[in-house]
Amino acid sequence: MKWFKKGLTFFFILSVLILCFIAFLVNTTNGMKLVLHTATKSISALHISTINGTLHDGVLTGVLYNTPGISINIDKVHFKLSYKCLMHKKLYVNELMLKKVNILIDNNWPSLQIANLIKQKNYKYNISYYPVILKKLALYKINIQIKKTGIYLASFIGGAKWQPHELTLTSSHMQGLTVSLPKTKTKKLNIQESIYNIKKPSIHLLSCIYINKIIQTLQKQILIQDLPIFHLPVHIKLMTIFCENLHFIGDHHISIYKVLIKATIKNQKLYLKNLAVNFPGGMVQSYGHITFHGTWPLNFMLHSIIHRNKLQPENIYANLNGDVYGHLKLKCKLSGSIQALVSLNAQLTPSGEQIYIQLQSSKLFWPLYGAIPLRANNVHFIFRGNLHDYSISLSADLGGQYIPSIMLIANGEGNADELVIKTLQLKSSKNITEFKGKINWKKSMNWCGELRFFDIARDKQNPITAPSLSQEPMTYGSLYTRKNKIFKDQIWQTKNLGIYFPITRSLLHHPLKIYGSLSTDSVGQCHIPVIKLNLGGNTITIKCIFNKQVNVYVHINAKYLEHFVTGLSGGAHGDIHAQGDLTKLRLLINLNANHLKWHKVQIVHMKLNGSIITNNKIQSEINLYAEKLKQNNMLINFFKLHAIGTVKKHILTINLQGNHAVSQITIQGSLDPIAGRWSGTCPNVYFSNTLGTWRSSNNITLDYLYEKQIFGIGPSSVDKPKIASSRLKIIKSNTFGDLKISLNHVNLAIFNMFMPVTTQLSGTLNTGYAHITLNRHTLLFNGTMSVIGNHIIINHNVTGHNIPIILNSFQVYLAFKNNCMQFKWRASIIHNGVLYGNIQVSDLNGERILLGDLNVDSLSIGLLNAILMPGETISGIINTHLHLGGSLKKPQVFGNMLLSNASFDTGFIPMKLSTAKVDILFNGVTSNLRGVMKTEQGTIIFHGITDWSQLNNWHTRISVTGNRVRCTVPPILKMDIIPDLTFEAAPKSLTLVGDIYIPWARFLLQTAPLTISRVSSDEILLDSDLKPIAPRSMTIPISSRLRIHIGNDVILKAFGLQGKLHGNLKITQNKKGLGLYGQIKILAGRFHAYAQDLTIRKGELQFSGLIDQPYLNIEAIRNPESTTDDVVAGVKITGLANDPKFEVFSDPEQTQESALSYLLRGQKLTSASNDSYALTSTLISIGLAHSESIISKIGKIVRVKNLSMATIGAGDKQQVQVSAYILPSLQIKYGFGIFDTLETLTLRCQLMPKLYLEAIYGLDQAIDILYQFEF
């Protein structure tokens, strides 16, 4: 019992000591130092600089770990252990923080253990573990250098749990991961050869590379080997990993904005719950699962959105499912700018590898933006089989910028040795080109095939006739490789190549015939006996032999060049001959052309001949002569160019003579290929025209470094003594690439030959200076230019009227410096104001920031009076003070523009403008318009606003109001209007809406205006060549909706109608044209018809679209007080205005004869004969009354005075009489009976103002003397 108590006491004391020791180690700094010093002594490579805190909350600084090949340096370590570690067999870490970690792994670091692990297959993992719970792990500024690969991590915050058979990574956040990969090195070949001597590299024939061996090697290799079986003893769970700002730097820089991963590995299965990646070009999102045993079944879904510049976003949907070691399926759908559907079915087992690939797309194009040289629509591609036996089919509609619309159809079959092309067709709307052949690579690359051409139009007309096989081009040949001693790459070359082609088809709507042959042999000799091409009467003949010596002969006989190129006309003939060795080839040219015409350029005759010898010196002599060269109003009688010499020394002479100018230039030059420099001199520069002669006073030196793209001009000057001592001087600078030019007393009339005929200059530029420095690195240049002139006259002709603009003084300054452009000007127009300003554009390669001022002081618009019609005048003063800002893409304008004291007197505007004032206030990207126009009666006020914050979508809105503005169109119209209109304008639309009130108006219309009728629908306009002119459509569609309100004081007098109008009309305009809708009522008035003044009882004019075709509904009656028997008689007018219907009616109802009698005479018919005479006489009188204007016009045409036609007499003796004055005092009259055949001729001569002598010849003859009395 005593020993038991002693043992129990000893055990208790020992336990207390152990617990105290553990508490000392955990809770004291010295205890932690004891633990860590023990660790550093046992691990010699470990070193810790300072230790602070406890194991429960400790901080370590300066932690180093160095072993051969590995160096780890940690600036700071902060950890917090939990007391739970003492109670459970687990390592509880509340927090672990590592800051500024540098890890360096040398190239000598051994990796044998890793290599041994990779070589092992189907091994099982035996992992010993100790439970670890890490609540928070924080890493900051981690830098890892592995050989030539660098990894940098800005921060990582997360947590982990390591428990039996399970590893869990809690929600983590990673930011700023950068991986720097080594760049691929490319070997540069420094090969320097003589520029003049062309050396043939020594080559020798290699053994042919058999393509079938490559295919057999691929066939022996199994694409998918036996897949390993993974036995993972633990489950891995990634709750959420969020990464930001990932960069991979190597040959290419890849940036990823965000990455989100959620995944689980359990029971040898990977479950990818979510994978989301955001990168600069778009985003990718995926999910799915895969099993790591058996046939490895999988199923993954992917969705991606890719953004391209100037293109629609590309949406990609992909689904990969099946078995990796079995049947695998892939479906991919693209929708956006590119639309495609890709299907892949693959059997990757060694027992039978079968692949099925299908591609369908409605449109494909390349490149993805900009001009599209290649476009493919309705693409359908299928690959079926394996490398032993496969088939291919392709169909697509091709087109592009320079490719016509054609259809491609291809079908083929192949195996390990060859590919058989069953069909390869290019089909257009008129022709079909077909190729059938075979390509074999068993021993070397050989091919043979046939080309066929079909004319669809001809074949449809003659479907029975089929082209013969012997009439189609046939091609054959082989391909082998040679090895170059300098370049070790394989170079493929042809061997025993041949082609025979007789072709008869049509091209550019003209018959095309080609026949000839070409053949090569194993030595490399190429022989073309003859190739003839005939297109629309133009013939090209080619004969040549290629071996060690070259002999090529080309004969051209083209009488109709318009059959070759659309827009080109004329004829050309000549020869081109090349012969000699490749190192010393001689080219002879002799070409002639007549009556050439290309658009607006015409050449009567042109001749080109010369020779070029490509030896060490490259000798050449070329002569070009052109006669009668004309473009628009410019005519050159002849142009001569002569070039002769070698590379080291050559001379170029140009002679030009026009109708009013002669020029001669001589250039002597030399080329130094080693220095990449051409230098020359101009000893003779001569130019003469009607204004005088210009001649260089010294030699002009020229330097051009073509590799550096630098051009320089030496000191020179051009004198023109005959016109105000005009002088052009070029000053040389010490810096190569600088150009300085000075001008003195230059007569601007010399530039008139380059100006349009409607604009001519006169005056003198006093001084001018330019200093330009070329920049070979950018497209911009630095320099300044200034021009000063006095009394400059600009004569501008507009529609036959000359507008002289006289500049009293003129100054211009332009400068480019430091990526900035500055432009200043000042122009003083004599008696018409001053224009001056300053514009500066900085950052020309970037934002192009705009800054400047625009000013106009007292500019008179009376300058435009010269182009107005006689009697029209315009006046006004413009003052403008604007300040510019923003950029060229988004300009801003501040300030105001004022037009004051403006007046305009013209017959085109139906109102006389007495004075007007317009003020525009600019506020950056908007402007406000305020204006007042005063007329002789009434005022018009308008307000407006313009917004150009988006240059491609600017908008303008102007409202117009007024108060009883008098409009006059003499002699037919006077009216007062009250406008309330709104005008809106945009880049693609013009809109006019509003109301116009007419309270008072007077219309007087005797004849129909010429513009009231529409143009005939079959109208055809012809140009000067009597060819139809295509109708022009409106560039900007105009839409208008106007409402016209006619008041109670509007009176119309037109075509016998006089009445008061009232109603509402609506005018619309759209793509279909102008339309008029509404109704006008005639409230009260009279209508003159049948020689009677009728009272309007009912009057309506209805418009339903057409302006000149209103519907009429008018009733007019005779005055009942002048009608007997209480009968009301009148006329009804109904129908369209171009086809009205007149109807005579009476109340009570009468016969038509009686109703007409009541309407014309106011009484009914009594006796048949007398009333018949009366009605006939009345109708004739009505007809003659309506024909008075026509008779008067006839009199003016035949130049007789007072020509008239009237009725005289009564009853059955009534006559129609025509009278006129053939002389001032001699009148002639001729009458004929209406109811008999009696004729009467009367001559009356005026003897005195009141005394007449009259002679009558008819049934009775008489001579009378008449005297006129006045009472």
Automatic annotation (TrEMBL):
Residues 934-1271 form the Translocation and assembly module TamB C-terminal domain. It comes from the Bacteria. It comes from Candidatus Erwinia haradaeae. It is found in: Membrane. This is Translocation and assembly module subunit TamB. Keywords: Membrane, Transmembrane, Transmembrane helix. The lineage of its organism: Bacteria, Pseudomonadati, Pseudomonadota, Gammaproteobacteria, Enterobacterales. It is a single-pass membrane protein. Its main location: membrane. GO terms for biological process: protein secretion. The keyword Secreted does not apply. One of its GO terms (cellular component) is plasma membrane.
